[in-house]
Amino acid sequence: xxxxxxAAQSSTTPLxxxxxxxxxxxxxxxxxxxxxxxxxHSDLHQARDxxxxxxxxxxxxxxxxxxxxxxxxxxxxxxxxxxxxxxxLVDSCQECHHCHHGEEQFCLNGRTDTYNSPDRxxxxxxxxxxxxxxxxxxxxxxRVPAGxxxxxxxxxxxxxxxxxxxxxxxxxxxxxxxAVVGLGGLGHMAVKLAVGLGADVAVLSRTRxxxxxxxxxxxxHLLVSSDAKAMEAAASSFDxxxxxxxxxxxxxxxxxxxKVDGTLVLVGQVxxxxxxxxxxxxxxxxxxxxxxxxxxxxxQELLDFCAKKNILPECEMIRMDQINEAFERLExxxxxxxxxxxxxxxxxxx
Length: 350
Ligand code: NAP
Ligand code: ZN
Fold this sequence. Notes:
Elements: E1 2-7, E2 16-21, E3 29-39, H1 41-47, E4 64-71, E5 83-86, E6 89-91, H2 97-100, E7 112-113, E8 133-137, E9 142-143, H3 150-153, H4 159-169, E10 177-181, H5 185-196, E11 200-205, H6 211-217, E12 221-224, H7 228-233, E13 238-243, E14 258-266, H8 279-284, E15 287-290, H9 296-309, E16 315-318, H10 323-331, E17 338-342, H11 344-349
Parallel strand pairs: 10-11, 10-13, 11-12, 13-14, 14-15, 16-17
Antiparallel strand pairs: 1-2, 3-4, 3-8, 3-17, 4-5, 5-9, 6-7
Helix pairs in contact: 4-5
């Protein structure tokens, strides 16, 4: 089936309309008409080849919400008309230890990403959700629970699960204190989800600009990371810090804020850190860790949790043809707090 999307043709060209073919349905495939797609900073990183493995043409998009329009002959979980979602993963080996334990993101035979990743059968480069339709095997399709606003649910598929997973892994809940570094797409979901889980939450931001927003999202306070006095006063006060900063940065100011046995989890930057000191690690048995999105089962748990608790991202809806401007604004951290593309705008442009 021929469909329309938006693609980057190289690391230096803006995204532009691009027609391409979606595969014919395999027996366990679901065809989804995409209604909304969130704009993740990872889309920008990969469009620009920041991580050095981008394959062009590159159609980004891994926060996908839509409706089932056809199913393969062996599909049992979904039917035409169902409201569904797709996140960062579309396949894995389904056989290794981690796949068996619902952590397909750590598949020992290599996870398959929604875009910029080869299809396991054909080896062709996968193309993502900045498009009118997508074909995904049913095991990687999520159900959008009734009551969850479809237009706002999209960012849960990456920003949501990427922050929910470490909150669950490190057991954030009543009695725990969580700090979130960087109030952007991931950061604002980390705040909402940690508050929803019952934790006491603070935001660490570069300036005071987002203080009112942080409080409105449920944080108890905002600390300005360059304010040495405030940082000193917050020493040894957090069980968990989730760091969402997308670029190389110094984590040394954050480590002393952890309690003994506390953990700083990096989810933002991929690459070389500026040298962390071992002193706060040794003196406080503190840890530095990383975390990658979340598995399919946990993503479904998150969607159900958000429907139950009425937790939704703060979205700014955009048209598909506004994507290049949105990327520029994302780079300047000028988004409150997630751009979501209304895919009707792409269909209308066809
Ligand atoms: P975003 O919306 O751009 O938010 C990033 C936030 O970090 C900004 O709002 C800003 O917050 C802070 N920030 C930005 N530039 C900074 C700088 N130079 N120094 C210090 N702080 C800075 O991005 P996002 O979509 O949340 O994504 C964040 C990162 O997570 C990206 O690198 C993305 O690729 C990565 N990611 C990882 C996973 C995973 O599985 N681990 C999944 C999805 C995304 P303040 O203004 O409050 O300081
Ligand atoms: Zn993402």
